[in-house]
Amino acid sequence: MSAFAGTFFSLGNLVNVALSIAVIGILGVGMTAVILIGGIDLSVGSGVALAGVVAALAAHAAGGAAGGAAGGAAGGAAAAVAAALAVGAIGGGITGLAVSRLRAPAFLVTLALLSIERGLAFLFSSGQAVSDLPAGFDWLGQGILLGVPVPVWLTAACFGGGWFVLSRTVWGRWVYALGGNESAAWLAGIDTRAVALGTYVANGLLVGLAAVVLTARLGAAVPNAGVGYELDVIAAVVVGGTALTGGRGNVLGTLAGAVCIGILDNALNLANVDPYLQRVVVGVVILLAVLGERIRSRARA
Amino acid sequence: MTAPVLSAAGITVRYSGVPALHDAGIDLYPGAIHALAGENGAGKSTLMRVLAGSRVPDSGAITLAGEVMRFRTPRDAHRAGIRMIQQELSLVPHLSAADNIVLGAEPRRWGVIDRRALRLRAAQAIASLGVPIDADAPAERLSLAHRQLTEIAKALAADGTSNLRVLILDEPTAILSAHEADALHEHLRALRANGLAILYCSHRLDEIERLADQVTVLRDGACVATGPVREMPARVLIPLMVGRPIEQKSWLNADSTGPGSVDLPVTLAVEHLSTGAETTARASSAASRAHTAARSGDPAIASAGTVLDASFVLRAGEIAGLIGLVGAGRTEVALALIGALRRTGGTVTLRDVRIHPRWPREAIRHGIGYIPEDRAASALILHDSVRANTTLAALRSLARWGVVRRARERDLTHRWAGALRIKTRSIETPVQHLSGGNQQKVVLARWLAAGDPALSVLIADEPTRGVDVGARAEIYGALRDLAAKGTAVLVITSDLSEAMALCDRLLVMREGRLVGELAGRDRTPERAASLMVPS
Q1: Half-sphere exposure of residue B115, counting CA atoms within 13 Å on the CB side?
Q2: Which DSSP string do the residues of B383-405 spell out, in sequence order?
Q3: DSSP state of B265
Q4: Does some domain include residue A104?
Q5: What predicted TM-score, i.e. pTM, was given to this entire model?
Q6: Which helix (H) or strand (E) element contains residue B319?
Q7: CB atoms B402 and A171 under 8 Å
Q8: Residues forming a β-bridge with B509
Q9: Does A6 reside within a domain?
Q10: Is residue A109 part of a domain?
Q11: Sheet of B32-37: strands edge to edge?
């Protein structure tokens, strides 16, 4: 057990944990905002795959394969990032418009997108991994800056930015108001449709960023990347105390939720727990976290 | 006197340590209506919930016909013949009236619902009330008054036996028009004649005077007085409720009894305003909810939910009252003015400029604020703080580059919380912990904070519904102050005594039309009432 403790608390392992939650963490920031307005996004896993595939294809189209000229490589990396963000924003825009203009239920719209985006990822990639990406792009997933992996920096920036926007800006306060009581927000002069649309587009941009990080880390875009991520992300948000009914919660809770699940996974791995049993343990912990929240809110009432 | 059917003594209830009831007691007699009076937060609801089994007291005893009872759940109380009708009605909207009446006690044969027995039992319960409720209509299609009576029929039909002994009603007339309230009172008198003990909680003292035999006054969780109603008129009850003498004063402008207010400058001129039944944004559940609430009066009123050719003016410095029966179109006028309901005709002129707000945001830019009828559903974010609720409509003016300046936000909240004397532990307390009156003050504070330096127009829809006497006076004072600063105030109210005490001029609506304007010597309750009721 002491060997376990020694490994677990080593700096290298802590960085490992941070790296392992980078993608889920980035997605968690967007998902927190979406859940705060009373919505949900089930399509983030598929969105990551599609944005990754399109990013990789864009890099190739811009002539930025690994062996290409330096200038072409930089252009390829930029094209890949731009393509990933654009794909994410379009997905978020579709959801946002359907939810805010047509009053379609977010659950069903994003369930449909989950299928559509996964299918497109396979179609565009012909079911094959798209590898051979520009070095500048790979750096976003594999590089080290000041001793810390680049994805960890990006994740930290997302949480910092998300926290600031949601808790300090007018926009953030509108997000809480919309999720807390849509009628009240509307009658108080808040453009509820713009807030909902903006929140889904922001979430889409974060899906694009998560796709960049994941693809760059793997060094290839894989059409079946991110399967089931939506559930891990929602779990992190909910364990972090954000109410699925909207209006209550924050990204710091989501960070704590993601770290909890990351540490748990990591510890169970190091302790050599049967991987099948690991899934069970993680599920039980999520259940306990949610039940604990219910019990606390009942005690308050 | 006969023995009480239900007695409670020494009841103490604490919510997370804070006492809500302290050594409270009450005796309910068969064949008597017992009123429960007190300010918001005095413990009325808690006492009713204890009697109805939905709250287990920390100490104290309940005896039913001499037998000590221990209610753990409402079901225990139901079995003992005690039923409570909640303020928020609890019918299942899509089920028929008959299905609702037998809900939870459906007659069964071999485990399958016996439809014929079900219909029979529901029909008996409805017949015993003598009201023409359509047993097959879904509950959501019934008028509010009929929904309330369906709840009572549900209590009467309980478990198929007529073992109902005590009926508890929490503010049953709060959502009814005066007309409907009178009808409900008739039914309650009939039930009283059948030997039922009725506990009746109400804010309306005139109603208590007309209906009840006994009255108990609660203040700060304790029973401060109990006695026959005829010995306790309003002038005795009010000081008992608030613990301090309250002058029943008039909030009128000095010259509103004369023709003086005609000289005031016109702020808003409305000409030939008509509406359809369609809200401006399908996106807006707010509008549709407010609209449904306004429409849910008597469906017999064919034109309910629309405004037909209404013309009137609102003047700076004056409080105008918009009165009428439920469904007369009062709320629709307000919703059309703020752009929540589509106008099908007419013009609105604000200080010589034609305006046509398409949604509330545009109305607010013109300086028109709206306090909705249902503050929990359409105004407040209940779990959010007093601060967040107060500044909701003023955030942009508090921000620099989109970032809210928190010190300014706190200052603004303190300023208005202080000016309106909002009673709260801190400005970070969630508004759900405030009493109804203080919640309403928060909504008012929102518009005072948003309307810096001053709003052009403030429309307040039933601003004192469910608000206790003390807070009511403070809200009246705040509205009068606002008018004195030059805002044109329009108060929509169902309470004629409120309209008489507060409004300088009365606009009367009936069946979607503006049928009269009463000012000066014409402004009498008799004139108002005769205009409101369809001839």
Answers
A1: 3
A2: TSBHHHHHSTTTHHHHEETTEE-
A3: P
A4: yes
A5: 0.75
A6: strand B319-323
A7: yes
A8: B514
A9: no
A10: yes
A11: B82-85, B166-170, B197-201, B32-37, B214-219, B222-228
Backbone angles phi, psi at B94, to 5 degrees: -85, -15
Helix, strand, coil tally for chain A in percent (to 5): 75, 5, 20
User: How does strand B82-85 pair with strand B166-170?
Assistant: parallel
For tokens 């023709």, the residue is B259
In one-letter notation, the amino acid at residue B212 is A
Structure letter (DSSP) for residue B277? E
**Phi/psi zone of residue A284: left (φ > 0), alpha (ψ -120 to 50 degrees), beta?**
alpha
Task: Find the residue in A nearest to B390 (Cα).
Answer: A188
Q: Tell me whether strands B353-355 and B214-219 are parallel, antiparallel or unpaired.
A: unpaired
* Cα(B172)–Cα(B154) distance, integer angstroms: 15
pLDDT of residue B494: 77
The amino acid sitting at B260 is G
| Token reading at B415 | 């300023």
Diameter of chain B measured on Cα atoms = 77
Contact residues on chain A for B340, CB-CB shorter than 8 A: 187
pLDDT band at A169 (very low <50, low <70, confident <90, very high): very high
Q: Which of A280, A286, A277, A284 is nearest to A258 (CA)?
A: A286
Question: How far apart, in whole angstroms, are the C-alpha atoms of residue B25 and residue B223?
Answer: 7
Query: What is the three-class DSSP state of A39?
Result: coil
Domain that holds residue A164: 11-300
Interchain contact B370–A (C-beta under 8 A): yes
A187 and B340 in contact by Cβ < 8 A? yes
Contact call for A170 and B360, based on CB within 8 A? no
Q: What is the pLDDT of residues B209-263, one digit of tens each?
A: 889 999 999 887 888 889 998 888 877 887 787 665 445 566 676 555 554 556 7
Query: pLDDT of B309-336, one tens digit each?
Result: 889 999 998 999 998 876 678 888 999 8
Q: How far apart are CA A165 and CA B403, in angstroms?
A: 8
Q: Is residue A103 part of a domain?
A: yes
> What ipTM was reported for this prediction?
0.82
CB nearest to B361's CB, from A168, A176, A189:
A189
Q: What is the pLDDT of residues B253-294, one digit of tens each?
A: 655 555 455 678 888 989 889 887 555 443 344 444 444 433
Task: Say yes or no: A228 contacts chain B, CB-CB below 8 A.
Answer: no
In whole angstroms, give the CA distance from residue B525 to residue B504: 13
Reference B122, options B84, B92, B90, B149; nearest CA is B149
Instruction: For residue A162, give the CATH number of its domain.
Output: 1.10.3470
Looking at residue B372, the DSSP 8-state letter turns out to be -
- Between CA A203 and CA A48 the distance in angstroms is 12
Q: What share of chain B is helix, strand, coil (3-state, %, to 5)?
A: 35, 25, 35
Query: Is A188's CB within 8 Å of B378's CB?
Result: no
Number of domains making up chain A: 1
